[in-house]
Design goal:
A hairpin with a 4-residue loop joins strand 2 (49-57) and strand 3 (62-67). The protein folds into 2 domains: 2-67, 2-Layer Sandwich (Ribosomal protein L11, N-terminal domain); 72-156, Arc Repressor Mutant, subunit A. The chain has 6 helices and 5 strands; from the N terminus they run E-H-H-E-E-H-E-H-H-E-H. The model has no long low-confidence stretch (mean pLDDT 90). The strands form 2 sheets. A 3-stranded antiparallel sheet has the order 1-2-3, with helices on one face. Strands 4-5 form a two-stranded parallel sheet. The chain is an alpha+beta fold and 157 residues long. It starts with a strand and ends in an 8-residue tail after the last helix.
């Protein structure tokens, strides 16, 4: 029977300390080997929190690692080069994304987003920008959503 462990780790910087070490120790697997494998699989998300699911077979001591993607907000922050979003998004803007960056984030998250098509996923990312104080192509994200509804940006989807 495989044991399942879900943790949130820093991309490429997991350590044998908590939360991994104490959880993996009783399972009898080589903790260092697991940590190194996690770091290898999450190095593309350096500087972000990444959800990781570990499936450990306690009999054979084998393990499988499934890496999720960071939240949309973390990907937006990485794209604009900021540590956190705006504390007052209506009045203070912290950065700007291009349409291409929004598409890139929507594509990275396509497996875990609710939107069924590119247009819906694009709107989800833009919606996240609303609450973070991030503009899209220099415009308020709500304006971009209205423009999408009117049929503008149709060539993207």
């Amino acid at each position: 029977m495989a044991e399942k462990l879900e943790v949130l780790v820093d991309g490429g910087k997991a350590t044998p300390g908590p939360p991994l070490g104490p959880a993996l120790g009783p399972m009898g697997v080589n903790v260092i080997q697991v940590v190194n494998a996690i770091n290898e699989k999450t190095k593309a998300f350096m500087g972000m929190k990444v959800p990781v699911t570990l499936l450990v077979d306690s009999k054979t001591k084998s393990f499988e690692i499934k890496v999720g993607t960071p939240p949309v907000s973390a990907l937006v922050l990485k794209e604009i080069g900021m540590e956190k979003g705006s504390g007052s998004p209506k009045t203070t803007k912290v950065g700007n994304l291009t349409v291409e960056q929004v598409q890139k984030i929507a594509e990275m998250k396509k497996d875990s987003m609710l939107g069924k098509d590119k247009r819906s996923r694009f709107k989800e990312v833009v919606g996240t920008c609303v609450s973070m104080g991030v503009t899209v192509d220099g415009k308020d994200p709500k304006q971009i959503i209205k423009e999408i509804e009117k049929g503008e940006y149709a060539g993207l989807f």
